[in-house]
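User: What would this chain look like folded?
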Amino acid sequence: MTRVGLIAKDGLQQASGVLTELAGWLESRGITPVFEADTARLAGVATGDTVVSREDLPCACDLIVALGGDGTLIGVAGRIAAAGSDVPILGVNFGSLGFLTEITLPELYAALEATLGGRATIEARTMLAARTLRGGALFADHVVLNDVVITKAALSRIIEMEVHVGAAPVTRVRADGLIIASPTGSTAYNLAAGGPIVHPAVDAMVLTPIAPHTLTNRPVVIAGESEVRVRPIMADQDEVYVTFDGQTGYPLRTGDTVTVRRAPKPVRIVKSAQRTYFDVLREKLKWGGDNR
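Assistant: Here's the prediction, encoded as structure tokens.
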């Protein structure tokens, strides 16, 4: 690795000094730090060849260090997918430990040394490719790390959706919405809605209704190679939205169909050497205290 990309959460002022120190640490080892444009301004770095846009960052470096929280890492993962890159992400948490940003600030340099030296574990996480069809034609497509969520507006009534997996009809669910989650996304909105936790090594997707009108509508775990097709059944007054990783979205229209399947490429995330996936679950979900 000869070029390391640096990106921080928008407005994260406490990252300013860390970014300056980190850039010097990389340069002292003959590695070029490449700043995302907003992050460069945060660090007081002048524009130049080593400052690029968020969209160009995945193709301008061999590793991305993302400073912030899980939302920052999710945004970076989406841009890596959009660029068709497979650059790994080293996520550093500036708050409480994250499900994705497992590496804390005191662990940054040890983790970076291990990654640059080829000793770190880099885990492949499944991403989901979503397409919205309108009038039988492609309206938009997205690649997400966590989930695709179809939901009603705040003041709307319960919505109805036809759900297919492949050619097979699954259900016609009446609920506040539906979550289609990856294993990584199983610990996000899916978990809050009562869905199961799925280990990231499992090749699967989860379908979880949000506050279903019928209590027999339960979360379903399906095979990772499946294609899910959801068509909202909308009356004129209904307002239905689709959102992608909680970061972008738009209203759906009558006749729209949202399809979700496994994306062609996973995203690669540097794992913490200090804790396992289950260590993170225990800490985040307050499981069992010190009883191990």
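The mean pLDDT is 93. If you want, I can go into more detail on any region.
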